[in-house]
Amino acid sequence: MQTLIIVVLSVALLLAVIKIFTAKQPAQASGTDAAINNIMTRTSVRSYTNEPVTDAQIETMLRAGMAAPSAVNKQPWKFVVVKNREKLKEIADSIGPSRAAAGAACVIAVCGDMTKTLDGVGRDFWIHDCSAATENILLAANALGLGAVWMGIFPDQNRVRTARALLDIPENQEVLCFIAIGHPAEKPTPKDKWKPENYRIIE
Fold it and tell me: What is the value of pTM for the model shown?
């Protein structure tokens, strides 16, 4: 009789475990859904906590930046990662639109290497290339649970000169922008920017 009770209890326990593992689980976002959601939920974050951003996270963001498309695969980007607190404050104090740098865990300066541009009228494609890299970094930051904001430098030559001096950037590089990055201390609501009037289809 005792053996029968043990068998019955064992079967009941097994059925309970099976029920738990076969219960309908919340739908997980597919790769496509996750990618679209990451794009749609990206926001500009300008306020950060004191938590540091790890070197592994920085490398992931830089890898994402370098995965961007570029004209004739020139890959004209150069990146300067600033983690020094005094330098971050100096950036914030010296360039008005870069105030978010003061509280950021790091700033990534996105630069265009003019020795890797196309000749002639194609020279300024570096702007497209480095902008694509910048957006990839912003999306990678969002995917990592970080907050980031794009802070424009180029084509304002006063800002470019100041940025170049602050970060000791050589003359053969143009500074496109700074990206302030950190763990978000705010949660801005993503803006719905969909406007059907902003596109047309030619069939």
Answer: 0.84
